[in-house]
Design goal:
This protein is an alpha/beta fold. The protein is built from ten helices and seven strands. It has a single domain, classed as Rossmann fold (3-Layer(aba) Sandwich), CATH 3.40.50.150. The termini are far apart.
């Protein structure tokens, strides 16, 4: 069975098959082909079998659609985009949202640019930059409605990387495992409070994804000028 057939079945069972563009499946197939071809050079993903690509990359990304549709963001960032998940599948699914894919590794960013060009994704740009640097750039600081981060960093670190980019009223969404009641969630809440963020909330993913969850952190007010700290420091010395 092809990756597209696997994805169609998963989306139907999960109730995520509504309001996808007519060309979505074909463009997803093309994206996966580009990803796997680049993976032979850049080690972008360990997931390569069609059924697992459909479940662990595409369905995992699209699990955020109900939240995105409820929030209605116009400008979004995919932090630590790597091979383009979740940003590219979400950009294909919702072409009215403008995306910035961010990866500090130049070769990965170059691969992302080639994917974007091949797919004709006019709503996507790529930055080969560290989040800490973007967070201090007036062109990006508190500019975005939504930041997505998948397999990027522990929540206390991620809060400092992402919240400076988000306008008050926007949201961070982190792809996580089972974190309800965990130390990571508590430390993430403490860090978010220092950065203008609110209390995190945990959303379940479709049952096909097992214990995957989506952690939402609202941006309530401006981030203090001293954040983010210099590149590398958030990871070495988390706020909480």
């Amino acid at each position: 069975m092809s990756q597209a057939r696997h994805l169609e079945a998963l989306l139907e069972v999960s109730g995520l098959d509504a309001r996808l563009p007519a060309d979505f499946m074909d463009r997803c197939e093309r994206y996966v082909a580009l990803l796997l071809a680049a993976n032979t050079r850049l080690n972008l993903t360990r997931v390569t079998q069609p059924a697992e690509v459909a479940r662990l990359h595409l369905l995992d990304a699209l699990a955020a659609l109900p939240l995105i549709d409820a929030w209605g963001p116009r400008r979004a960032v995919d932090l630590g985009s790597g091979g383009g998940v979740p940003g590219i599948p979400l950009a294909l699914a919702r072409p009215d949202v403008t995306w910035l894919l961010v990866d500090s590794v130049g070769k990965k960013a170059a691969a992302l640019r080639s994917f974007v060009a091949d797919l004709g994704l006019h709503n996507v740009t790529v930055a080969a930059e560290r989040a800490e640097t973007l967070g201090r750039d007036p062109a990006h600081r508190e500019h975005y409605d939504f930041v997505a981060a998948r397999a990027c960093a522990p929540l206390p670190v991620l809060a400092e990387l992402a919240l400076p980019l988000i306008r008050p009223g926007g949201r961070l969404l982190a792809w996580k495992g089972q974190v309800a009641g965990s130390d990571e969630l508590a430390r993430g809440a403490a860090a978010a409070e220092l950065l203008g963020g609110g209390e995190p909330s945990v959303h379940a993913s479709p049952p096909a994804l097992g214990d995957h969850t989506l952690v939402e952190v609202p941006k309530l007010g401006p981030t203090p000028d001293r954040f983010p700290r210099r590149p590398g420091l958030p990871a070495r010395r988390p706020l909480a």
